[in-house]
Amino acid sequence: MLSPRVRGQAFFDDSVNSERRVQTLSREKREYIRFTSVKRKKDFVHGEGFGARTYLKKKRCECASDGVILLSVILLAGHSCGGASISYAFECCPKKISKAVFVCATMVSDGQKPFDVFAEEIGSAEMFVQESQLLVYGNGQDKPPTSLRFDKQQTKGLYFNQTPSKDVALATVSMRPIPLEPIMEKLSLTPANYGTSRRFFVQTLDDHALSPDVQEKLVRDNPPAGVFKIKGSDHCPFFSKPQSLHKTLLEIAQIP
Length: 256
What we know:
- By secondary structure, this protein is an alpha/beta fold.
- It has one domain: Rossmann fold, CATH 3.40.50.1820.
- The protein is built from eleven helices and eight strands.
- A five-stranded parallel sheet has the order 1-2-3-7-8, sandwiched between helices. The protein has a three-stranded antiparallel sheet with strand order 4-5-6.
- Helix 9 (about 210-220) links the parallel strand 7 (about 200-205) and strand 8.
- The longest helix has 12 residues, at about 240-255.
- The two termini are about 30 Å apart.
């Protein structure tokens, strides 16, 4: 059973949402208040190697670096391998979650590993572990690998091909090795729990890490309630197309 850590915090203090104060704010901040004052809690789960900074650009969103806490009826958004975490959360607490948003994420089916989503492009998990030169053996060389380091020379082309250079510099400095256990274990997802979820998928159409063809296959194999597309976005729309991503999340949050 996959056991990703699921922790987090609330995003917005409703006390700021007074008519007088909203009128004095910029258009961008007023739009942010519209998103955060929808009467549900919103939480964001970052993808592999990323942290809380992922969601800071222009949206002013706060994010817990390890995921989300399920305290009330909430909307979850997961990026990349963070899709496995929100799937697991839905399986555990289906009545606590209003909607799940997969942002170019691993929207897997029952019995799948999150790694399986990438298998068509990079090969099987077994072959990957045997051939990769970037594995970290945190428990010793005689034990299975524990995480995967990023090749920073390849990262820009895979993750940030449409991202401004200053954001690439910040992101690459901040990225950390990817824990292997959560992405190599199969998820057990049941119709009674995960099957009741209202899922939405956000496709990134200039994505070199999770290609548009693979994203289309995810949608066909595991149909969500809705699909949204962001043109000109690489694998990290919070850097390359933050305003489009914000608009999309707002639209999904307001769906009855």
